[in-house]
Each structure stands twice: as C-alpha cells, then as structure tokens.
Amino acid sequence: MYTATGDGVQSGAVITVSVYPKVTCAANAAITLIGKHTANLVFHPNAFAFVSRPLAAPAGVESYVTTFNGISLRVVRGYDMKYKREMLSMDVLYAFKTIDPALAVRYSIGA
Q1: What angle (nearest 5°) sits at the alpha carbon of residue 13, between those of residues 8 and 17?
Q2: For 41-94, what is each residue's pLDDT tens digit?
Q3: Fewer CB in 10 Å around end: N or C, the chain?
C-alpha cells in the first residue's frame, strides 16, 4: 500500500506524485493508479465530550467495579438455580456528545 505524500504536479501529459514507500520503475513506464478512499477525523479535544460513571455494586451478590483510564466496568457474578448455570454480567455506563462541531473536520484523501 502506498500513500501520496503531497499534491501531484502536472507538466504536459506527465503527472508527478511523491509516494511512500518509494516506487522504483523504468523510465517512462506506465503506472496504473487505483483510487482508494481514506477518511480521517481531525479534532480538538474540546470538540467532543465522553463521560463514564461507575455503577453501584448490587447488594447480596459477588461483584466488583474497576476503572481504567477513566472508564469504569462493573462485573456481577450470579447463579441461575433453574438452569444450574453460572452467570456473569459486565456493564459500562457512558455517554458522548458533540460540544463544538466547528472544532472537528472529516479529512478525506483519495477519490
């Protein structure tokens, strides 16, 4: 896979494009380009908000709450007497919202 590293420059019927990694070919060799669409999201940290809250551990059952990088996970362990099986429940409580859409842009490369 190759990535264009700059704009193409046209001189008559010849178009020169810098790519990475470098392509080596014979002089005046025909190269066929197949377009690929690549899109990225570029944003300032104030563009979006993400919130995660720890859930309370329920009483009377084995459970724990752990947090990593601000995201909390609750694990509850139980047993189903009717079907004679162990059950695990994993829950995450979160929300996200766009705060200022002017601070984000979708950047597309290719056609």
Answers
A1: 20
A2: 899 999 999 999 999 988 888 999 999 998 999 999 998 899 999 999 999 999
A3: N
The pTM of the full predicted model, rounded to 2 decimals, is 0.49
- Record the tokens describing residue 20, joined without a space: 């990475």
Q: In whole angstroms, what is the distance from residue 80 CA to residue 98 CA? A: 41
Which structure tokens are listed for 83? 């079907």
Phi then psi for residue 16, to 5 deg, are: -110, 125
* Residue 48 region by backbone torsions, left for phi larger than 0, else alpha for psi between -120 and 50, else beta: beta
Cβ–Cβ under 8 Å, residues 42 and 104: yes
3-state helix, strand, coil split of the chain in percent (to 5) is 5, 50, 40
Place of tokens 């200022």: 100
Comparing CA positions, the residue from 87, 50, 98 lying closest to residue 72 is 50
d(CA 36, CA 31) in angstroms, rounded, equals 15
Using DSSP, state whether 6 is helix, strand or coil: coil
